[in-house]
């Protein structure tokens, strides 16, 4: 079961605060680009290049802002990349400690079954397409639910408010249309 | 080395808390977005409020380095990207952070989300010159008030730390005022 919202909210707020107190606000979606760049450079060496001026790339996106994404991909042992790997380890351990996610849920979430029955292939296709659109949108916006919505609004960033308004404006009608049953 | 240690500690704490509040569970995300259970919304609003209050109060007390703030630019692409992310978030029940955490907790669909996400990010990398040429990516950083010690332009001419504190309190109030559900019938899905 999930934590009561008052306890959960305070705990999550403390994590946001610890991040900005000790290092910087939390963000996740950039690391999909970094992993893409690492994979890309492995499959097709030369994507990331070391020059006298530093690390850069023949891809304009990786080369932007002084090649900061190319640099992170050249050295994956950096704060933001390790952060996401640690998130996975933290979630894995937490899920294990509360008894693990049940076999049925792991295969298909209850709300999917309530709306679409036992159709795993359809669900995985939906998750795949959702992931594609989410990350394309996040990179266009320059951040995701973590970087814009949580870290952004917490810092009174105007971009965070605009992002949150746009995300919910699309998410609520899509969820009501696709998932009319509660599950 | 300290930086890596902090990444491990804060990252693990973030992943564990996302798991415990139900954010790594697509059922809870979708129930929030189809408005049948706002429990997770209340959790997130309270978290933003608590984070905001601690950060701005800490800045006022001189305990939190203003230089640790990182405000993103405002441009038209933020709104377009937000709409896209929102649609995919509702369809899949995952966002980037909760997707990787859900995959780690053993959910098969979350791995498909990650593969789709890697391809979506790669597609953006390739289409970046197009977006750049449209001019929709140009803009400037901006905060609500002028944060002392930071050089972000402000939307309104008020001290940013006081405004930030007030916004934090507002988020906490909204978290308490928001009902457990806005759509559907009967008792909300119970939480522990």
UniProtKB/TrEMBL annotation, chain A:
Its main location: membrane. GO terms for cellular component: plasma membrane. The keyword ATP-binding does not apply. It is a multi-pass membrane protein. It is found in: Cell inner membrane. The chain crosses the membrane at residues 7-26, 79-101, 121-138, 158-179. Belongs to the TsuA/YedE (TC 9.B.102) family. This is Uncharacterized protein. It comes from Roseovarius litorisediminis. The lineage of its organism: Bacteria, Pseudomonadati, Pseudomonadota, Alphaproteobacteria, Rhodobacterales.
Automatic annotation (TrEMBL), chain B:
It comes from the Bacteria. The chain crosses the membrane at residues 39-61, 73-91, 111-131, 152-178. Pfam families: Sulf_transp. InterPro entries: Sulf_transp_TsuA/YedE. Keywords: Membrane, Transmembrane, Transmembrane helix. This is Uncharacterized protein. It comes from Roseovarius litorisediminis.
């Amino acid at each position: 079961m999930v934590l009561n919202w008052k306890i959960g909210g305070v705990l999550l707020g403390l994590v946001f605060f610890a991040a900005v107190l000790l290092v910087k606000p939390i963000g996740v979606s950039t690391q999909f680009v970094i992993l893409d760049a690492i994979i890309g450079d492995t499959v097709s060496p030369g994507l990331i290049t070391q020059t006298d001026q530093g690390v850069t790339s023949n891809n304009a996106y990786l080369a932007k802002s002084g090649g900061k994404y190319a640099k992170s991909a050249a050295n994956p042992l950096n704060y933001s990349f390790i952060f996401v790997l640690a998130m996975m380890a933290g979630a894995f351990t937490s899920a294990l400690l509360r008894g693990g996610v049940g076999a049925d849920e792991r295969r298909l979430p209850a709300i999917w079954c309530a709306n679409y029955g036992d159709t795993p292939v359809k669900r995985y296709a939906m998750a795949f397409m959702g992931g594609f659109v989410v990350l394309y949108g996040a990179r266009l916006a320059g951040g995701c639910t973590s970087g814009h919505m949580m870290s952004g609004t917490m810092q009174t960033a105007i971009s965070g408010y605009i992002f949150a308004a746009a995300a919910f404006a699309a998410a609520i009608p899509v969820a009501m249309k696709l998932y009319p049953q509660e599950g | 080395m300290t930086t890596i240690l902090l990444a491990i500690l804060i990252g693990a704490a973030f992943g564990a808390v996302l798991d415990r509040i139900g954010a790594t569970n697509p059922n809870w995300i979708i129930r929030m977005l189809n408005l049948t259970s706002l429990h997770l919304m209340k959790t997130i609003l309270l978290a933003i409020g608590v984070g905001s209050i601690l950060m701005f109060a800490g800045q006022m007390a001189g305990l939190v380095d203003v230089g640790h703030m990182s405000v993103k630019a405002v441009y038209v692409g933020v709104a377009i990207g937000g709409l896209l992310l929102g649609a995919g978030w509702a369809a899949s029940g995952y966002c980037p952070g909760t997707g990787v955490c859900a995959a780690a907790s053993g959910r098969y669909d979350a791995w498909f989300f990650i593969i789709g996400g890697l391809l979506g990010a790669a597609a953006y990398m390739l289409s970046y010159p197009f977006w750049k040429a449209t001019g929709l990516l140009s803009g400037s950083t901006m905060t609500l008030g002028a944060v002392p010690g930071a050089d972000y332009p402000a939307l309104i001419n008020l001290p940013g730390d006081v405004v930030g504190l007030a916004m934090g309190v507002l988020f906490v109030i909204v978290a308490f005022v928001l009902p457990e559900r806005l759509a559907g019938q009967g008792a909300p899905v119970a939480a522990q």
